[in-house]
Amino acid sequence: MATVPVYCICRLPYDVTQFMIECDACKDWFHGSCVEVDEDDAPDIDIYHCPNCEKTHGKSTSEDYSPFSFSVQNGSQVFIKELRSRTFPSAEDIVVKLSGSQLSLEYLEDSGFNDPILVQKKEGLGMSMPVPTFYISDVENYVGEKLSQTFRNKDVFLKHSFCSNLLLKLTSLM
Length: 174
Description:
Elements: E1 6-7, E2 12-13, E3 20-22, E4 29-31, H1 32-35, E5 45-47, H2 51-57, E6 61-62, H3 77-85, H4 91-94, E7 96-99, H5 105-111, E8 117-121, H6 136-143, H7 145-153, H8 160-173
Parallel strand pairs: 7-8
Antiparallel strand pairs: 1-2, 3-4, 5-6
Helix pairs in contact: 6-7
C-alpha cells in the first residue's frame, strides 16, 4: 500500500486549500496556520526557518518588499494577486514576424534568437514541419541520447552549427 507524504508539524498530507511555506533549512513544508505565518506576510520573508530549525539556524529574516524577489506557492491568493498586479508586454510587441524566406541561418547569426519568431508563411523556409507523431525520442535517434538529455535537463543556448545540422537532418527525413 502506497503511503501519502506528510508535512508540517501537524504531520498531515498536502492540502491544496491551505497556504504552506517551505523552510529554507530543512526544506519541509508547513501550513501557515500551524507556524503562525500569514499568507499575506509570506512575500516579505527572505529566509524562512521553521520552529525546529530556528533553534540551530536562527529566526526567519525579512527583506524590503519587492515583487520580484520572492517566491510564493503557485495558485495561492498572494500569487494570484501579484500576477494580476503585473503588466506584461503584448505579443505584438515581442514576437518577430517573418516570412519563410526571411528566416535563414544568416538572419539568426545576425539577429540572434532572443525573441519568439512567428513564421507567417512557410514558403521559402526550405524545410518541412515534422509530422505530429515526431517526439523527443525521434530527436534522440538522430542526435544521440546523451545530447538530447542535455537539452531535456538544462537551459542551454543552441549554437547555430548544431541548429543547422539538426535542421538538415530533420529536413532530410521529410
